[in-house]
Design a protein that fits this description.
Largest sheet: none
Number of helices: 11
Protein name: Ankyrin repeat domain 22
CATH architecture of the largest domain: Alpha Horseshoe
Keywords: ANK repeat, Membrane, Transmembrane, Transmembrane helix
Strand content: under 5%
ANK repeats: 39-71, 134-166
Transmembrane segments: 87-108
Number of domains: 2
Shape: globular
Length: 191
């Protein structure tokens, strides 16, 4: 299950190929912020969509524009916030869980990678409160995904907890509806 991009730099970013991306950007620096015609993704959005930390670091070091949005009005931060374990990850966890708790350690590693990716994007001047076509911010998506380890990262950057999405829900409303009590406590404390 992958994505095919017309832009070679978006494809290299999605696949996590820093070497290929370096080669492409050396030839044509305008490819740094190129947007796909079909969905409007940039190399940075493609890398965040697929969780490629090394590529994200490389693109940010080269001053990729974190404010660019795709056709769904989503920034790279939206895609970091929307990331969940893939089906393959869940299968590996399930298969390896009985074997010396290897599945548990795999899951911890994936969570640490997610946190590192979030911290990397938040170290830029990304708009924390950007809303997509559904009116959701990154905080909305993190609350929907029960990513209680990522909520504090956004709150430290002063994410607005009062933004309502198109359904009239704030991140706190989502956490309450889904009964994510730990996140509810964090959001209430931030008020």
């Amino acid at each position: 299950m992958g994505c095919l991009f017309v832009s070679p730099s978006c494809q290299a970013a999605y696949e996590g190929d820093v070497h290929q991306l370096y080669h492409l950007l050396s030839k044509d620096p305008t490819q740094l912020n190129v947007q796909e015609e079909h969905n409007g993704d940039t190399p940075l959005i493609a890398a965040c969509r697929h969780g490629k930390l090394r590529v994200v670091q490389y693109l940010l070091e080269n001053r990729a524009d974190v404010q660019l949005t795709n056709k769904k009005q989503r920034t790279c931060l939206h895609y970091v916030s929307k990331r969940t374990l893939s089906l393959l990850d869940y299968l590996m966890v399930a298969i390896l869980m009985p074997i010396l708790l290897l599945g548990y350690f795999l899951m911890l590693q994936k969570r640490r990678q997610q946190e590192a990716l979030m911290k990397e994007v938040l170290s830029s001047n990304v708009n924390i409160d950007a809303v997509d076509y559904k009116g959701n911010t990154a905080l909305h998506y993190i609350c929907q995904r029960k990513s209680h380890r990522l909520v504090p990262l956004l709150l430290e950057k002063n994410a607005d907890t009062n933004i309502q999405n198109n359904d009239g829900e704030t991140p706190l409303d989502i956490a309450k509806r889904l009964k994510f009590t730990k996140i509810v406590k964090m959001l209430k404390k931030a008020h």
